[in-house]
Design a protein that fits this description.
binds iron/sulfur cluster; 13 helices; binds S-adenosylmethionine; twelve-stranded mixed beta sheet; alpha/beta; single chain
């Protein structure tokens, strides 16, 4: 145990010293902040650090997914350099996601090295979205590296249902992770994808459980990303219906609370807790979009709902200086589209986009 901790610490120190050689701004003209053609300031970067996962959630992946060859992945040092270039350009919130970020080997080295931007004040928040399966191992290190809040995805409190939604997951393990994170004082928001006929009867109990534990809950509409083994139409539950049903049981008070993400929040009067709705289908939230998404191969997606992407790996590897990288980021942001237009109905049964959510992260 001791030996493993020492080994990990050594690895951490190695990356920290490697990356300290990577200047925050590696030269080139001083980086301009990122404003898109619709005058939206881009201040939030989500990074999918791996496309791999230890679950196979039915709405996210097919059971027999093909993953990228490991050789195609950017190294942790490269991910650090890319993230730092965005921070130099005004990004103040970084979310590590995936696939499952905590299954990427050495992930804590990246978290630890990125935490220098928290210490410098350039970054307001370093956070993560995780399925919670490895959280019991990493909660303390996340906290020690300045992570204050995390999102944990959990669609049901029923162990059998959990296994059938995630195909490979173990609810008890995730619960142990949530307990460990809470014991460390990490704030937790639970993300729940609303699935027709699967967990719609559990939304009220998830509200009561999360709020009873001092956690926020966000409900998400299923999005038509990537081929999966079932029909999206069978899964899709519009949140307009969920909200109307909840209003029969609870008092929902609209509040201004924002976390920099797409959720719109209400306070549930009876529990005193917050409930978020992420509604890419029934209510498009693109007008206030402040985000872009980076994949583990260095592709930058300017919109979750569009195909266009910019290759940042080439300019990253082309030079030790960040000049090419900054120009490539500027060009990409100049192409950020106004928004997406997802539809799930009988006429649109194919995925809106071929890539899975695990490629770009949630
Ligand atoms: C792709 S996962 C990556 C991080 C981590 N593995 C997890 O599950 O939290 C991020 C979020 O996207 C959600 N998600 C995945 N596929 C989705 C889809 N097709 N529609 C809506 N949400 C989806 C997941 O429930 C999760 O909350
Ligand atoms: S939603 Fe997260 S945990 Fe589930 S398969 Fe996708 S990446 Fe893995």
């Amino acid at each position: 145990m001791m030996k493993r901790a020492t080994k990990r610490m050594h690895r951490d120190m190695t990356l920290a010293s490697d990356t300290s050689a990577i200047d925050f701004d590696r030269g080139g003209s001083s980086p301009q902040s990122l404003i898109d053609p619709f005058q939206r300031a881009i201040t939030y970067l989500r990074v999918s650090v791996t496309d791999r996962c230890d679950f196979r959630c039915v709405y996210c992946m097919s059971e027999h997914m093909t993953f990228l060859p490991k050789a195609d992945l950017l190294t942790l040092e490269e991910l650090d350099r890319l993230c730092s270039a965005f921070v130099a350009k005004g990004v103040n919130k970084l979310r590590l996601t995936g696939g499952e970020p905590l299954v990427r080997r050495g992930i804590m080295t990246l978290v630890s090295s990125l935490s220098r931007h928290l210490a410098s004040g350039a970054l307001k928040e370093l956070t993560m979205t995780t399925n919670g399966s490895q959280l019991h191992k990493y909660a303390a290190e996340l906290k020690a590296n300045g992570v204050r809040r995390i999102n944990v995805s959990l669609d049901t409190l029923n162990a059998d249902k959990f296994r059938s939604i995630t195909r490979w997951g173990d609810l008890e393990n995730v619960m142990a992770g949530i307990d460990a994170a809470q014991a460390e004082g990490l704030e937790i928001k639970i993300n729940m994808v609303a699935l027709k006929g699967v967990n719609e009867d559990e939304i009220a109990s998830l509200i009561e459980w999360t709020h009873g534990q001092g956690m926020d809950l966000t409900i998400i509409e299923v999005m038509p990303l990537g081929d999966i083994d079932e029909s999206r139409l069978d899964q899709y539950l519009p949140l307009s219906i969920v909200r109307a049903r909840l209003a029969e049981r609870f008092t929902l008070e609209d509040i201004d609370y924002r976390t920099g993400g797409p959720a719109r929040y209400v306070r549930i009067k009876e529990t005193g807790g917050r409930l978020g709705f992420i509604t890419p289908l029934t209510h498009n939230f693109c007008e206030s979009c402040n985000r872009v998404r980076l994949t583990c191969t260095g592709m930058l997606f300017m919109c979750l709902g569009q195909n266009d992407a910019a290759d940042l790996r080439k300019p990253l590897r082309a030079s030790e200086s960040n000049e090419f990288l900054y120009s490539a980021i500027d060009e990409a942001i100049a192409r950020k589209p106004k928004g997406h237009d997802f539809v799930i109905d009988r006429r649109h049964l194919k995925p809106a986009l071929p890539r899975h959510m695990s490629m770009t992260g949630g």
